[in-house]
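Reply to dn_fold:

You asked what the input looked like. This is it:
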Amino acid sequence: MTDDTTSGELVARHAELIGRVTLMWSDIHAQAGQLFEDFCASAEARKQYWGTQNDRKQRQTLLCEASFALQEYPDLWERLEKALAAIDQLAGD
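and this is what came back:
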C-alpha cells in the first residue's frame, strides 16, 4: 500500500465521518423543530421559527416556548434544558 492510497483512505474516512455528523446535526434540529411545533399554537410563530437561519436562535426560541408549555412538567423541562445546553456545547465543536 502506498502513501497515496493510505492518504486517500484517510480522507475518505474523514469525509464519511463529516457526512454522518452533518446528518445527525440535521436530525437533532428536525427533532427540536418538531418539539417547537408541538409546543406552539401560533402558525405565525412556527413560520418565524422555520424562517430563522440560525440554529442557536431556533434552540433559544424552542427553550422559550417550552418554558410555557412544560410549566406543569418540571422534570421534562429540566431534561429539555439540559439537552439543549449539551447541544449548545456541541455546536462550538
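The first helix runs from residue 3 to 39.
Hope that clears it up.
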